[in-house]
Amino acid sequence: MNLGIKILLITLTVLTLNSCTKESDKDSKPKSSSINKIMPLGASRVEGYRPEYESYRYELWKDLSENGWTFDYIGTQSDEADYPLYNGDEFDIDHEGRGGWTSGQILNELNDWLNDTGSPDIVLFSSPGGNDALSNLPYEEAIENINAIIDILQAKNPNVTIIIEQMAPGHSDIMNTQLTNYFIQLQQEVINIATNQTTSNSKVVAVDMYSGFNDTYLADDVHYNEAGAEFIANRYYNVLESYLTH
Prior knowledge:
By secondary structure, this protein is of the alpha/beta class. The protein has helices spanning 3-24, 44-47, 57-66, 103-117, 130-134, 139-156, 177-197, 226-240; strands at residues 37-42, 72-73, 77-78, 94-97, 122-125, 161-166, 204-208. It has a single domain (3-25, 36-240), classed as Rossmann fold (3-Layer(aba) Sandwich). The protein contains eight helices and seven strands; from the N terminus they run H-E-H-H-E-E-E-H-E-H-H-E-H-E-H. Strand 6 (161-166), helix 7 (177-197) and strand 7 (204-208) form a beta-alpha-beta unit.
């Protein structure tokens, strides 16, 4: 196994244990009554670990705020890192990201999280299957889990909008043939999932996070630096504009 991947998997394991510990210590948050309740869902690219690496959430929050949208990030997790005020406002720290978690782990806990937070209006489904690939888990199992996650979200809210990433790659140093083929296969599968899971009331929308993404957007093998976080946030915002409620 590539040394970079070995180190990364050790890091992901530590982040998973830390995330589980933090979760057990948290009290339930009050359910949001805002319009445009947005749940950022995924693993470490959602959670972030400032200052080591960034989540896209802060940059997207600034974009949404700057353009006058009323919204609320929801999730059982809280980001306690230091973020500057923006236009006098404090960053909305709620999210549903857990470093190192696979699609199966997210699937197993999702119902409980939704019971705590209430149903989101919009879900930003980040890097689905990414940690499955890094952990060398079966591709078919990841696809089943991703579809099952969407099923749960739609069962909780038949009108939910789910924006699912065609995820950005890792650093070229770790993108061996096996990992590259996994990513390429998943890019097309995400389009199929979006088409098949869209209903008359619930849109599932694929967003391209890989075209134009390169090593300069990464803080390490897989996580965003500030420029990468802004790149991802801009891609999300360009799609979100069509689905937000005024």
